[in-house]
C-alpha cells in the first residue's frame, strides 16, 4: 500500500541525501497552506505536526522541529539516513526532510486515525476499538518490533514504546513511530554487548533506559 505513495512522492521536485528525499521549503509551505492552523494535526514538546497535500494529491504529515542550530544538521541528516533504510508495513515510513532557517522538518506518511493514545483517551474513549481491532493492533506492534529487533542491521531498539508512538491508518492498521530528540541528545547510540549472543552492534533510541542497562550496562535481548 505504501509503494504507490513512495513512487508519487519521489516524483516530486526533490533531491536526495543518502536514502532520504530532501524537500524544498516552498513545497512544504504550499503543501501545508503556509503551515496554516487549520492543517495542524497535533502539537507536542518537540514541535507541531501539519497535514500536507503535495502536487498530485500525495498526502503526508509534516513535523516542524523548532530551532536546533546549524551544529545539529549533520547529526540530523545522519539519523534520517538511518531511518530512511527502515521499510516495513508496521513502521511509520519516513518520506523526506527539509532544513530551513534553523528549523528542521520531517515528512512522514499520513496516519489518518492518529495515535493509539488519542483513540484510547480522546473524545471517543476507545469506542471504535473493538476487541478484534485491539488484538490486531497488538499483533501489528509485535510485527514492527520483531522487524526492528531481528531483521534490521544493526538491530534497532526503540526504548520509547508507548501508545502515543503507535499510529493508526484509516483501517486501524498499527505502525510504530520513532520520536525525534536530536536537539537534546543523539537520537541513536551505537554500542556493543555480549549478552545472549556473540558481540553484536545495536542501535537504540536514547530516551528510557532499562534498569539492567542503567546499573550494569547489560542489554537483555527479550
Structure characterization notes:
The chain is an alpha+beta fold and 222 residues long. The chain folds into two domains: 2-109, Phosphorylase Kinase, domain 1; 114-216, Transferase(Phosphotransferase) domain 1 (Transferase(Phosphotransferase), domain 1). The protein has helices at residues 2-10, 25-31, 73-83, 116-121, 131-151, 211-216; strands spanning 14-17, 20-23, 40-44, 47-53, 59-65, 94-100, 103-109, 114-115, 156-157, 166-168, 174-176, 188-193, 200-205. It has a seven-stranded mixed beta sheet, with helices on both faces. Strand 1 (14-17) and strand 2 form a beta hairpin. The longest helix has 21 residues, at 131-151. The protein is globular and about 45 Å long.
Keywords summarizing the entry:
single chain; 222 residues; alpha+beta; Transferase(Phosphotransferase), domain 1; three-stranded antiparallel β-sheet; protein serine/threonine kinase activity; Kinase-like_dom_sf; serine/threonine-protein kinase
Show the helix and strand layout.
Layout: H1 2-10, E1 14-17, E2 20-23, H2 25-31, E3 40-44, E4 47-53, E5 59-65, H3 73-83, E6 94-100, E7 103-109, E8 114-115, H4 116-121, H5 131-151, E9 156-157, E10 166-168, E11 174-176, E12 188-193, E13 200-205, H6 211-216
Parallel strand pairs: 2-6, 9-13
Antiparallel strand pairs: 1-2, 3-4, 4-5, 5-7, 6-7, 8-10, 10-11, 12-13
- Quaternary form: single chain
The CATH superfamily of the largest domain is Phosphorylase Kinase, domain 1
Terminus-to-terminus distance: 31 Å
Secondary structural class: alpha+beta
In terms of DSSP E residues, the strand content is 25-35%
The count of domains is 2
CATH C-level class of the largest domain is Alpha Beta
Mean pLDDT over the residues: 76
**Proper CATH architecture of the largest domain:** 2-Layer Sandwich
Ranges with pLDDT <50 over ≥5 residues? Answer: 1-6, 181-200, 204-208
CATH topology of the largest domain: Phosphorylase Kinase, domain 1
Enzyme class: transferase
Catalytic activity: L-threonyl-[protein] + ATP = O-phospho-L-threonyl-[protein] + ADP + H(+); L-seryl-[protein] + ATP = O-phospho-L-seryl-[protein] + ADP + H(+)
Family: Belongs to the protein kinase superfamily.
Domain Protein kinase: 35-222
